[in-house]
Specification:
The complex is a heterodimer of chains A (about 80) and B (about 375). With about 80 residues, chain A is mainly α. Chain A has a single domain, classed as F1F0 ATP synthase subunit C (F1FO ATP Synthase). In chain A, about 90% of the residues lie in helices and about 0% in strands. Chain A contains two helices and no strands. Chain A is elongated. By secondary structure, chain B is mainly alpha-helical. Chain B folds into two domains: about 80 residues, no CATH class; about 240 residues, no CATH class. Chain B contains twelve helices and seven strands. The two termini of chain B are about 35 Å apart. The chains are: A mainly alpha (about 80), B mainly alpha (about 375). Chains A and B meet through helix 1 and helix 2 of A and helix 1, helix 10 and helix 11 of B. Chain A: Its main location: membrane. Chain A: This is ATP synthase subunit c.
């Protein structure tokens, strides 16, 4: 098989896997945040702030994968 | 964001392979520059990546100055400066490797053709004769917008600092939208970011944290303006910011931190220390590398998504020669672009905040004084962890 084709394939699969991971992570995060906000509505503001920061961190990890996928595409 | 980036992979993958045969065949009638290859490599990636020109297409482009540190055949170093890539090539001392080709085009008719087609903007400059380029110090697009961000931050905060010097904001209430807004942000960063994460020594590190925050914020927002570029979408810029955090942390680190880093946890038996010490050292470096990549990838990714969504219109136009496909794609991708643009505005703030809070956390880890630091007993320091 053409190595370039394999690299494109790997980039595509990698992007998909990164999406699954990030989606699961942000899903878990918002699940807990909603629970927390529902139980203690007075803490909703604090929870929202913490949630956004954590979401940024999770997204950052997913974007590492994106950088690797992009490298695979560009270097193929 | 990752979900939205997925469509990018497809045109990018198709581009270099399929464009040569498929696109050129289908777009024989289309404008010369509107091929798949052009859309993906030039319009999408070219805008997000760094470059030696400012692109204001369809109104044209402005070339930025080139400054090269060169070593001549005699081994002497010298600086070569030109107001643009074009004038550097016209000087006759430099040739260019056109994009994707390994043959140096030396000054002559072929080079003039390249310049006429504006292809010299995407090539790699090399000396035509003897000698070599040591460092390319050229002013690039990201560098320019980084300087612009720096200038804006400097002007705004020097103005505000002078106001506080005169007493406005200290002995009386802050005046004007700008001062009120900035004071809120600065007080927030001081009380919510620096104090809890660094501890009692926060004052020493506040200038760095505030500078980093506002520079990143302004650079991020500048990247959202059409035709501009985001300095923080460049790994060199974010790398240097993260490196500053690293150096500031290490220089101000306490003896406790070094002991923990180089000798391992005080109570651990030695086989565990053998494993833990390399992990600790690698962890200290990796978390700063991650700091740089996080900011870079967020900004770069956001720019690529926006350009890809706009690029879908052109890709559709190239793939299907009917105008209806492009119109349909245009309506959908305009909606998506607006959505992503608003999301990026949010991300611009979040990433500046995340960078600052993590910098504060890493510096705090290094400069943290344990309650009984005066007691040098190993068991005492151990219980602090």
């Amino acid at each position: 098989m053409d190595p370039a084709a394999l690299a494109y394939l790997a980039a595509g699969i990698g992007a998909g896997l990164a999406t699954i991971g990030a989606g699961y992570g942000i899903g878990r995060l918002s699940d807990s945040a909603m629970d927390g906000a529902a139980r203690q509505p007075e803490a909703a503001g604090d929870i929202r702030g913490l949630m956004i920061v954590s979401a940024g961190l999770i997204e950052g990890v997913a974007l590492f994968a994106v950088v690797i996928c992009l490298l695979l595409v560009f270097l193929a | 964001m990752v979900v939205l980036l997925a469509p990018l992979m497809v045109p990018a993958a198709q581009a270099s392979k399929a464009s040569a045969e498929a696109a050129t065949a289908r777009t024989a009638a289309a404008a010369d520059d509107l091929t798949l290859d052009y859309v993906v490599n030039r319009a999408i990636i070219g805008h997000a990546a760094d470059g030696y020109y400012l692109d204001f297409s369809p109104f044209g482009s402005i070339e930025l100055p080139r400054i090269l540190l060169v070593r001549n055949p005699q081994g002497n170093l010298g600086l070569d400066a030109a107001s643009s890539t074009k004038s550097l090539l016209k000087s006759g001392n430099y040739g260019i490797y056109p994009e994707g080709k390994d043959d140096l085009v030396t000054p002559g008719a072929e080079l003039d053709d390249l310049i006429a087609e504006k292809k010299h903007l995407y090539g790699t400059v090399a000396p035509a004769g003897q000698g070599e380029i040591v460092v390319d110090l050229s002013i690039t697009r990201h560098f320019m917008f980084g300087l612009l961000a720096m200038g804006i931050v400097a002007v705004v905060f020097i103005t505000l600092a002078n106001r506080y010097k005169r007493g406005i904001g200290r002995s009386e209430a802050p005046r004007g939208v700008l001062q009120n807004m900035m004071e809120v942000i600065i007080v927030f960063l001081r009380d919510e970011v620096a104090k809890p994460n660094i501890g009692p020594k926060y004052k020493q590190f506040l200038p760095f944290l505030l500078s980093a925050f506002f520079f990143i914020l302004v650079a991020n927002i500048l990247g959202l303006i059409p035709f501009s570029g985001s300095a923080t979408g460049n790994i060199a810029v974010t790398g240097l910011l993260a490196f500053s955090t690293f150096i500031i942390g290490q220089v101000n680190a306490t003896a406790d931190y070094w002991k923990h880093l180089l000798l391992g946890p005080p109570d651990a038996p030695w086989p565990i220390r053998v494993i833990l010490i390399p992990i600790e050292i690698m962890g200290a470096i990796t978390r700063h590398v991650a700091l740089a990549i996080r900011l870079f990838a967020n900004m770069m990714g956001g720019a690529l998504i926006i350009f890809s969504l706009i690029g879908v219109v052109f890709v559709m136009n190239v793939l299907f020669t009917t105008g209806a496909a492009a119109w349909g794609a245009g309506i959908i991708s305009t909606g998506f672009t607006v959505f992503v643009l608003l999301l990026k505005l949010l991300v611009a703030f979040i990433q500046a905040y995340v960078f600052t809070i993590l910098s504060a956390l890493f510096i705090g880890m290094a400069v943290e004084e344990h309650d009984h630091a005066h007691d040098e007993g190993a068991s005492a320091t151990a219980s602090a962890h």
